[in-house]
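Quick start: what a row looks like.
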Amino acid sequence: MLEIKRLTIMEEFDAVLTGTDTEVNGTVTTNAGAYTFKAIDDSLEITITRDGEGNWERISGTEPYLSGWVDELAEQIYTNNSKLG
């Protein structure tokens, strides 16, 4: 019997989100269409994905968070993906 396994490729890239006082440096990983930003100092984590209409939405993360981070992160995802391909 032949077994086919689905391979999920996770990519990682550096990103910066604008905090209330300073910039927040971190890395973004992707898995199954969801993108997770995790701050280097572990102060912030946010996961976003596209909804049924193609709009970016936050699906999990630390509180509190700034709503502008969704758009800021989505822009960096677009920029990174454009470089790849």
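That is the whole record. The beta strands are 12-18, 23-31, 34-39, 45-50, 56-61. The helical segments are 68-84.
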